[in-house]
């Protein structure tokens, strides 16, 4: 082997090592499986960092804690550095997330994905927009990290599936609510505009009142004062209670369906598992089973006898049945 071949082999080995470590980093920073301790530990660590960051953001607004501002700033700085490192690592390992794309396209795809945008908006206000009060609200996007961490969690996935499965019914019920709100606004305008021109200036000015009434909030800052207006308010309130309950019932039914489906699938897997574990043995002349009862065999060998085939006849496995030569024992391990 000449020097060029040795050099090539060394380079190939180094590339494989780099790819291995890169893939391992990708596995760790992704949402981990329960069996992958480093990945699960990283998930827990990131959740703690996110909570610390959000708590710091909240505590900074308390004037009573002004003397601790330097601590809050330090915690915020450290957590933001961690977010930046995580963001860079996710861009670097994006090729393993989008395996069918080139490295450049995979990284670009991550940058415009939901996770990439959330990560970007998480760190952006700290470096560029912290001086603008309106843009400081972007820091709330950090909370989305919690949803990203829980994206593959069973509870969160069930919520997502319910919303997706029932999206047509939910959209229909929301449309009904919007129609009721608009109709209520028009009715109250026609009845109350003459006596309350400031509160009901036009046909859409009553939307605020109809929203608070239909959702039974009832702020009380705008109220009907005519007899017909009050009667309509009572009718709209009753209609609102029924209409608002529709999407709640749809979502509740979706949860019941999902849990029922999950239970059925679990039962099916359990039955299939039992079928796969079923075995059989033919009792030969030198078999230790000969002369033993079913109960003794089950106790000694920790099995459950399902049936015995004797001379092409099915024999029920009662406790006192004695096993004979030539029997075929169908059993399952306990």
From TrEMBL:
It is a multi-pass membrane protein. The chain crosses the membrane at residues 42-59, 71-89, 110-135, 170-191, 231-256. Keywords: Ion channel, Ion transport, Membrane, Potassium, Potassium channel, Potassium transport, Transmembrane, Transmembrane helix, Transport, Voltage-gated channel. Pfam families: Ion_trans (PF00520), TrkA_C (PF02080). The keyword Transferase does not apply. One of its GO terms (molecular function) is voltage-gated potassium channel activity. One of its GO terms (biological process) is action potential. It is found in: Membrane. One of its GO terms (cellular component) is voltage-gated potassium channel complex. SUPFAM superfamilies: TrkA C-terminal domain-like, Voltage-gated potassium channels. Residues 266-334 form the RCK C-terminal domain. It comes from the Bacteria. PANTHER family: POTASSIUM VOLTAGE-GATED CHANNEL PROTEIN SHAB (PTHR11537:SF254), VOLTAGE-GATED POTASSIUM CHANNEL (PTHR11537). This is Voltage-gated potassium channel. It comes from Eubacterium ruminantium.
């Amino acid at each position: 082997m000449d020097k060029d071949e040795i050099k090539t082999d060394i380079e190939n080995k180094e590339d494989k090592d780099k790819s291995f470590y890169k893939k391992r980093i990708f596995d760790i920073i992704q949402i981990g499986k329960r069996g992958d301790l480093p990945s699960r530990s990283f998930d827990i660590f990131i959740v703690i960092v996110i909570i610390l960051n959000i708590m710091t953001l909240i505590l900074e607004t308390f004037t009573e804690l002004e003397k601790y501002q330097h601590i809050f700033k330090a915690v915020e700085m450290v957590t933001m550095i961690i977010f930046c490192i995580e963001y860079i690592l996710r861009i670097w390992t994006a090729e393993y997330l989008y395996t069918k794309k080139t490295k450049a396209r995979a990284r670009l795809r991550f940058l415009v994905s939901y996770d990439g945008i959330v990560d970007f908006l998480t760190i952006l206000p700290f470096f560029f927009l912290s001086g603008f009060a309106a843009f400081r609200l972007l820091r709330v996007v950090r909370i989305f990290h919690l949803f990203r961490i829980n994206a593959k969690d069973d509870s969160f996935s069930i919520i997502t599936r319910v919303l997706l499965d029932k999206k047509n019914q939910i959209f229909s019920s929301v449309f009904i609510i919007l129609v009721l709100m608009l109709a209520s606004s028009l009715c109250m305008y026609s009845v109350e505009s003459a006596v309350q021109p400031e509160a009901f200036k036009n046909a859409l000015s009553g939307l605020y009142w109809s929203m608070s009434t239909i959702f039974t909030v009832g702020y009380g800052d705008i109220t009907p004062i005519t007899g017909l207006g009050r009667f309509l308010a009572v009718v709209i309130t009753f209609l609102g209670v029924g209409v608002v309950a529709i999407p709640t019932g749809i979502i509740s039914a979706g949860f019941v369906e999902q849990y029922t489906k999950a239970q059925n699938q679990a039962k099916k897997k359990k039955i299939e598992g039992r079928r796969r574990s079923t075995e059989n043995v033919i009792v030969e002349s030198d078999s230790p089973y000969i002369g033993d009862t079913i109960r003794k065999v089950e106790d000694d060998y920790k099995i459950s006898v399902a049936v015995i085939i004797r001379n092409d006849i099915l024999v029920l496995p009662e406790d006192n049945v004695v096993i004979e030569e030539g029997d075929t024992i169908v059993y399952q391990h306990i």
